[in-house]
Design brief:
Strand content: under 5%
Shape: elongated
Number of strands: 0
Distance between the termini: 80 Å
Radius of gyration: 29 Å
Structural class: mainly alpha
Number of helices: 8
């Protein structure tokens, strides 16, 4: 008995639907991506909670009106100024990714004027700057200001390695 066109189309559609169902239910890629998303979401929530807790400790330990001094290591002796131009460590802080000119002006108002100032920041200094500048918790760490400043402060010889 020869099959006509309509039953052949129905058979083809049924086979196609069975193939899609086998592919959909037999593949757990969606579960893998969902699991990765949930892990990343939980990791970020933990990071945010730790960062907010650090900010709360800093706020609780300091007066809101008192200036937040930046802890700095004492330099053994100031270097004599170069006769022409600026020292390498006096490069503009806008070379650091994440610091634009308006933010650089606000940093300079707080006493952070050179690459070396940023390279020598402590964790407490970062938190104090974030509070004073109104940045989100962990911005300085996330944008890696200290690492960038240390690289820039070390000069071109470090970049050639």
């Amino acid at each position: 008995m020869p099959l006509t066109i309509v039953p052949l189309i129905v058979i083809a559609v049924v086979i196609l639907l069975v193939g899609i169902a086998i592919g959909y239910f037999g593949n757990d890629a969606a579960a893998v991506w969902r699991r990765r998303f949930e892990d990343e979401r939980d990791h970020y929530a933990d990071y945010r909670a730790r960062s907010d807790a650090r900010h709360a400790r800093v706020i609780a330990g300091r007066s809101a009106t008192a200036p937040l001094p930046l802890a700095r290591e004492a330099d053994p002796a100031p270097e004599p100024p170069l006769p022409i131009g600026k020292r390498e460590s006096d490069r503009e802080i806008t070379h650091i990714i994440g610091i634009d000119p308006p933010l650089a002006e606000r940093l300079e108002a707080l006493g952070v004027t050179t690459i070396r100032d940023i390279a020598t920041l402590t964790l407490e200094d970062e938190l104090a700057l974030e509070l004073r500048l109104g940045l989100n918790a962990g911005t300085i760490t996330r944008d890696q200001w200290r690492s960038q400043a240390q690289l820039l402060d070390s000069g071109p010889a470090a970049l050639a390695r």
